[in-house]
Batch of 4 targets.
Target 1
Amino acid sequence: MWNVVTCENKALNPMLQSYFPYKDGPNSRENSWGLAQWNLDAHPEFKREQVQNPDFALNEMAKSFNKGDYWKWTCYTKIYGKT
């Protein structure tokens, strides 16, 4: 998880929004936030304030990893390839 987090959020800034440009153009960024870069469009069950909380973000990431859903993170596939 550490390798994925430090790839997704190099600054380790829990308030960070993704720098990845979104489909609306160069001035629009992906709706991903926090240490784990949770995408709120893909996870409407989460609120931005939740995923910006390091304890919440990392606990939910650990749950996803335990379920085998690590493939959801772009950096996982960059580092380890597809599984």
Target 2
Amino acid sequence: MILRLIAIAILLIAGAGSAIGGQVLPDQRAPSRALGGEIAYTVYLPDAIAEPSRRFPVVYLLHGYGAGQGEWFKGGRVAEALDRLIGAGEIVPVIAVAPSAGKSWYVDSAAWGGPGDYETAIVRDLVEAVDRAYPTRTDRTHRAIAGNSMGGRGALRLAFAHLDTFGAVAALSPAIWKPGSVSSITNTQLQPSAGREKWFPRTTGETFDRKVFNAQSPFALVAAMAASGMPPRIFLASGDDDYWHLEDGTLEMYLDIVAHGLRPELRVGNGGHDWKFWRRMVEPALRFFDAGWHERK
């Protein structure tokens, strides 16, 4: 902890002559019992981290299929968005953490020889490591999670399944399909059957298991989440020209949540399944998170 704070201080001093902004530290490592090794991540630290005794909200950023920990920083330009909003006083300073999770779909899959137990690695191991290493606010209200595509599905699933960990979630074009509904018909990743093995490699079993896949879906968690008395604040967004037709599942998720008495935020705009659309949603999502953080300085 002391060595990490010294490293942070050196970076801040080195950047003192430049414009005020946060620091992006790539290729960090956190020990992970779930993975039997380490989980890699990139972290954004706000300039205000140099202020003694101050603690900050945390946003976890989940990447899409085949991407990695740098996706939100390169494609999403999230550091620039954070610098702009924090610098203008539109949101409070925040720490952002983007883990690398391969093609895991953010589920535990080691038992089937899959990518690994990434759900546990993120929710338990990474969160614990980040709270030890940085001056974070450790209550659920000040911890949010966001993701795009595969990461959007993962963000919803982890937020709905771990209500004591995350107080808010934003899903951009989440890769979700409601069983037996429109989105399960219009999707292309589950049909034909060969595509299932390609897109979901050993994440539902040694071969694709639809029952397990449906049980892993955020749709399977909506009722319990809504009835819990502590649902997260929810932000959903999708482009209307999504290549995978993921606007269908996004709208169905919105309607399911509303049917259970909650009022999520919804954004449907002109755009496809890419960062050209998602970048337009980054700042609204960050403002949405900030509205739930009861601290402004």
Target 3
Amino acid sequence: MKYVHDLDEAKNLVHEAFIALWEKYETLPMDTNFRSYLYTAVRNKSLNYLRDRKLHLSVSAVENHATDTASGKLMSDELEREIALAINSLPERCRVIFEMSRFEELKYAEIADKLGISIKTVEAQMSKALSILRKHLADFLSLLFFLLMP
């Protein structure tokens, strides 16, 4: 509650932390302090939730503003095109891993299992993909930001 200020969402995050602990129980060292582990897991899940919610709200605000005007509709269409171009410009392996993570909403471990690669490889490829996308979209997003200013 301290982080998310929503009782139902707080309960969901705690539940997810317990499930994660249950799934990892066999692999954790015997001397693990489970109370600290759970506290940290819930805190991290809460912070991730807030980060994702903030990003979602920002994107929604841009989309809402963009669809309110004719020029906004054009900017929204252009943004979608630029994002598609940026994703298609990724190297094949990066693109596949990025799409599995972002569009299929698979976790890194699930992607690693499906592709028969290590989790570290998935992490490295996602980092590479995000870096390329950030560079590719930087100029366009700066321009979009200034166009949307009142």
Target 4
Amino acid sequence: MPILAPQSMEFISRSAEQTRRMGMRLGGLLRPGDVVGLSGDLGAGKTTLVQGLASGWGSLDTVTSPTFVLVNMYRRPARPERTPAAASLLYHLDAYRLAGTPEQVQAQMIDLDMETMLATGVLVVEWAERVQEVLPSGKLSVTMKWVDENQRDLMFTAEGVRYERLLSSLKKQTYG
């Protein structure tokens, strides 16, 4: 009997660079409309994973934590096989400062125009547990844990058929 459910994958990262490379693999699999929710304590490596994710997705932009601006937007160069051009956006939302009742959080997400983000690109949410009730039910969740100075534990969980397929591809790229 397997220890993990088929819709889950655990990855132990032994360096920030390894976390970025895992993000690059994942970023290369994402497409417009996808949602990735990141959870984990401060220092768990969420922004480091997003740096790799944005790079693998095709962005040349510098990735920084959006803690004080709430949402950073990263672009990737247009290519003929990618249409429409607006779908070349990756939204990096930091939900740490969003708070209140579920209704208040939902209003804050509406103010941030989550609907447009989902329609025009990929949405990556740090501190996803704070806005869980307003995120789509289909998504890839990544729970990150600080183990020690150089080691992080990443648990990927697919929620929905699209994300089960995505996770299956990520497993093949990672473990063969």
